[in-house]
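Incident log, structure service

09:12 report received: a user says their structure output differs between two submissions of the same chain.
09:20 pulled the input from the user's history:
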Amino acid sequence: MGVQVMWSKRDLRVDDNAALVAAAARGPVLPIYVVEPGYWDLPEASVRHWAFLSEN
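09:34 re-ran on a clean worker, output below:
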């Protein structure tokens, strides 16, 4: 089987992520996360979110 590309826009959960489970059931997974600079200007974005992302 080929590699499954898993693009996470904002959901980085691994323990209960249905899309990740489905991808992993099909074979190896290449996870991709792209930082969206404009997202950090939104009111729902917080320093706590950025701290989590920058640790991983």
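09:41 both user submissions now match this output. Likely a transient worker issue. Closing.
09:42 reviewer note: The chain has a mean pLDDT of 85. The beta strands are 4-8, 29-33.
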